[in-house]
Design a protein that fits this description.
Radius of gyration: 22 Å
Order of helices and strands: HHHHH
Distance between the termini: 54 Å
Number of helices: 5
Mean pLDDT: 83
Structural class: mainly alpha
Low-confidence stretches: none
């Protein structure tokens, strides 16, 4: 019985209120360039979450692309230039 009660208390404590969810969605919305530009429109929480996922995916692709370009640059640069670039990254 006590484990049931403690699980119940944990779920009550870990629940996020509706106000907190609205606040978090609003903060996410402010971080998304596409939605932020049209802030006058009311956007649903589902749309904000979809846009967040899309934005994170695009950031991952951008990081991968930049990493690949950097690797190519380091491979084609002479050792002095590559050393300078590596030191800037550290």
């Amino acid at each position: 019985m006590s484990s049931r009660r403690s699980r119940s208390r944990q779920s009550e404590v870990s629940r996020i209120s509706d106000d907190q969810i609205v606040d978090l969605v609003s903060k996410l919305q402010a971080l998304l360039p596409e939605i932020r530009e049209r802030s006058s429109d009311k956007v649903s929480a589902a749309k904000v979450l979809q846009e967040t996922c899309s934005y994170i995916r695009s950031l991952h692709r951008e990081v991968d692309d930049l990493s690949e370009r950097l690797s190519e640059l380091l491979a084609t640069s002479d050792s002095a230039q590559a050393a300078i670039i590596r030191s800037l990254l550290m």
